[in-house]
What we know:
Layout: H1 15-19, E1 21-22, H2 41-51, H3 56-91, H4 95-98, H5 104-107, H6 115-166, H7 173-218, H8 220-227, H9 229-267, H10 269-274, H11 278-330, H12 336-348, H13 350-377, E2 381-382, E3 393-401, E4 407-416, E5 421-425, H14 432-439, E6 447-452, E7 455-456, H15 462-468, E8 469-472, H16 483-488, H17 496-505, H18 510-513, H19 531-545, E9 549-552, H20 562-575, E10 579-583, E11 595-600, E12 603-608, H21 610-616, H22 619-628
Parallel strand pairs: 5-10, 5-11, 8-9, 9-10
Antiparallel strand pairs: 1-2, 3-4, 3-6, 6-7, 11-12
Helix pairs in contact: 2-13, 3-6, 3-7, 3-12, 6-7, 6-13, 7-8, 7-12, 7-13, 8-11, 9-11, 9-13, 11-12, 17-19, 19-20, 21-22
Amino acid sequence: MTRFAAVDPGPEPEPGPESETESETGPATETATGSLPLARPADSFRMLWRHTLGQRGFVTLVGIVGLLAAVAGLVAPMVIGWLVDVLLAAGDGGAATDNGATASGGGTGASPLDPAGAIWWAAAAVAGAGLVAAVCAWAGQAWLARAAEPTVAGLREAVMDRALRIGSARLDGTETGDLVSRVAEDAREVSQAATTVVPLVVQSLFTVVVSGAGLAVVDWRLGLVGLLAVPMYWTTLRWYLPRSGPIYRQERAAFGTRASRLLGGVSGARTLRAYDAQGPELERIHAASAQARDLSIGVFGFLTRAFSRNNRAEAVVLAALLGAGYLLVTGGYVTAGAVTTAALLFHRLFNPIGALVGMFDQVQSAGASLARMTGVIDLPVPVRTGQLHGGALELAGICHTYRDGTPAVHDVHLEIGPGEVVAVVGFTGAGKSTLAQIAAGMVAPTAGTARLGGVELTEAEPVSLRGHVTMVSQEVHGFATTVAENLRVARPGARVEDLESALATVGAEWVAQLPHGLDTEVGEDGHRLDPMQLQMLALARVVLADPQLVVLDEATAEASSAGARQLDVAAARILAGRSALVVAHRLSQAVSADRILVMEGGRIVESGTHEQLRAAGGRYADLSHAWFGD
Length: 630
Ligand SMILES: Nc1ncnc2c1ncn2[C@@H]1O[C@H](COP(=O)(O)OP(=O)(O)OP(=O)(O)O)[C@@H](O)[C@H]1O
């Protein structure tokens, strides 16, 4: 789980535009690691409540049937108490009530009914109440699912929507991972809690409240004795909570280790057989398995101790209740039936309270997940209004340091005129990709300005920005839909002829060979495209977007492969007539550029054409000789 800390967003990359934001809510709590924020509990509940809109009818129904079920649960103790009074009255001719004590079940007094008839009435009442409780439980579960699933789905979509709208300028490395886990694991946690834990918690709470109230109604003195249980349960909770989290975490971690050991053993089985080396691996698996087993036994022991503490509290208070009941009965204040009812009602609290204690950490954990999801939903989205009209790209005094303190770019000055192609080369980690993302307006530099035609990129309105600047990054991604829809990401509503023409420009003739051509489903469950094919679709998207400036950071193909040559040709075609910043992961991508920049340690250390730089005999010349072998 993420650690909490005071609000400290760290160095905000873009003080100007980022400070002007649209947010529907107050600030969320930022985490110390610079990860995404966590919402306050009140904000989390507000968000949950807002997402139940449309399901509130079901929520109300769930509440009503939950209450009905809890009230139906009162019938058996009340009726049994009444029966006790009836039988006692029948046994000693009404002596049990001669002293004027109030009978159970609301003080109606013991009835002079014939015992056999009373037993039948009691049995019918208990059976009827049981039936009502069962129907209520069934309906409650069904309605809860109707209320919970759309609510969680809405929350998940809201997280995704906000994540996509804040864009990569706000998210870097750890934050992207954090975001994925909030959309996937946290949503699953909340969803599971909503459909499994919450019903039990709600039902238990209703039972506890209704039974407690019933106990007080039967006799307020017995109700007071029952209250003795509260501090005892509270002590158990105080003992249980600080221990349960670490124990369950250890157990989950051990399960994870055991699973990865088993998987490792299975996937490496051939190698192990080849060297007849199964022994040591089996020992490692055994050790991981034994650790998980021992921890599970420990968890069981821990739970038993927690429940035995509860049982102790229950036994002590039940004994006190019976003792007080005896005194009250002999003193003529209540009937034996009333004490029976009180004891049964108190006994009815045992299971729900045990369940509440046992589920407390799951509720806490779901609450933490909800806070993580709400933290993203509440993130302010920058309001950008700048309109681009073309012109030169000017980077002035660009510096960039990532949130974790890694310096990436230092004092870069660069101008790319209309139609000019500039390539950037350098070793891994030189800062090329960071510079490319700044030039594409995807990352706000920590210092300096990046402008297109005089308009700050980070102030440009998103549609205007994407209309003028397109970036093809190293990430190759195919959306789980058709090839056509993958292309239409760049131009929604593009005609089939436009798509075919874009594919022809980048030389992606293979699309026509796919089972359904442009309509072929791709992605995990569809036709699997290789990274080269996905990169070609990315280049075709550039043709469709038709931007003025292209930022190319493509590193898909192995140097000297046929694929690399194909991609180089495709890139050359899409760059024709546009200005471009090309991160050259293969030196062949740089040779024909109008200007080549060599980056080292975040700075530009050389600049010139291929020939000029080779003649200068500096770093580029060394790279070039090594690359081309001349
Ligand atoms: N999201 C990030 N968070 C923190 N540090 C980062 C992040 N991205 C890059 N860096 C660091 O910034 C520095 C510059 O990285 P960058 O990716 O810009 O270099 P590069 O020249 O493009 O390298 P490559 O050719 O491997 O892509 C490196 O030290 C890198 O580890």
